[in-house]
UniProtKB/TrEMBL annotation:
Record's signal peptide: none
UniProt-recorded Gene Ontology molecular function terms: glutamate racemase activity
Active site per UniProt: C91, C200
Biological role stated in the UniProt entry: Provides the (R)-glutamate required for cell wall biosynthesis.
Catalysed conversion reaction: L-glutamate = D-glutamate
Organism: Richelia sinica FACHB-800
Protein name in UniProt: Glutamate racemase
Coiled coil location: none
GO biological processes: cell wall organization; peptidoglycan biosynthetic process; regulation of cell shape
UniProt EC number: 5.1.1.3
Length: 285
């Protein structure tokens, strides 16, 4: 189903004997999940991480549920082979369209970003805006999660199809990106929101742009922070928190390793070594 250009890990015996030392898998369509990775480095510095970016098939936000489900299964099957102890689905689109299905199919915990983000938003405000990919916005996942927690909260969602491609192309400081962001935020500002949720893990990269356009009293909610907090709680509950020095983070992509490595330098502050993983039974556009 897939092949890897890098040799397989020789740590299987260690993981079998000490499951807490096994890595946490983190995946996204591209660089967006690096916002989650940075939070893991901050909150869980002893955990080993395998990060996968499905860069050959991004953006996810314009895909159908059937496509997203196939992509997620490809990635989770690969991560299962890597002996992960837990997976963070660092992708709002996948969390909205596939999380509840695949949770029933794998024997390791899988965390999504939507519920932790919704809980944090409800704690902060009453008039909540959500910026998201088209698929996440269409799913109504954030609205449903927020209203389930507090039915009195008002929620407005905006689909932002251009954000992910602009971020992946490192065009954050392009004047065009500011104009696009202004158009997306206008209806939310008109509704006088007091809280804005990043409904895609790519979007925290746009924080300087968004902050410059929003009224100063609007609070920004980054679900990446809160999903990692939930991850720490889950590790403690299962007795799986690692106490040994971590292994170096392993990076893999389905697209161009060099392009991802360049983005990694921008967002992580170092150039990661990146391997390529091929999903031979999946259609790649």
């Amino acid at each position: 189903m897939y092949s890897s250009s890098i040799f397989e890990s020789n740590l299987d015996n260690i993981f079998a004997q000490e499951p807490a030392r096994a890595p946490i898998g983190v995946f996204d369509s591209g660089v967006g999940g690096l916002t989650v990775l940075r939070q893991i480095y901050k909150q869980l510095p002893k955990e080993s991480i395998i990060y996968f970016g499905d860069t050959a098939r991004l953006p996810y936000g314009i895909r159908s549920q059937a496509e997203i489900l196939q992509f997620v299964r490809d990635i989770l099957n690969w991560m299962q082979q890597c002996r992960v102890k837990m997976v963070i689905m660092a992708c709002n689109t996948s969390s909205a369209l596939a999380l509840e299905i695949v949770r029933q199919e794998y024997n390791f915990p899988i965390l999504g970003v939507i519920l932790p983000g919704a809980k944090a938003a409800v704690q902060q405000g009453q008039r909540i805006g959500v910026i998201a990919t088209p698929a996440t916005a269409k799913s109504n996942a954030y609205r449903q999660a927020i209203v389930e927690i507090n039915p009195d909260v008002q929620v407005w969602q905006v689909s932002c199809p251009e954000f992910v491609p602009l971020i992946e192309q490192n065009r954050i400081h392009d004047p065009y990106t500011t104009e696009v962001a202004r158009a997306y935020l206008e209806p939310l500002i008109h509704q006088e929101i007091d809280t804005l949720v990043y409904g895609c893990t790519h979007y925290p990269h746009l924080a300087p742009v968004l902050r410059s356009l929003l009224p100063p009293q609007v609070k920004l909610i980054d679900p990446a922070i809160h999903v990692v907090t939930a991850c720490a709680q889950e590790l403690d509950l299962l007795g799986l928190r690692n106490t040994h020095p971590p292994q170096p983070t392993r990076f893999a992509v389905s697209g161009c390793p060099q392009q991802f490595a360049q983005s990694g330098l921008l967002w992580l502050g170092y150039t990661p070594m990146v391997e390529q993983v091929y999903f031979t039974d999946a259609a790649v556009s």
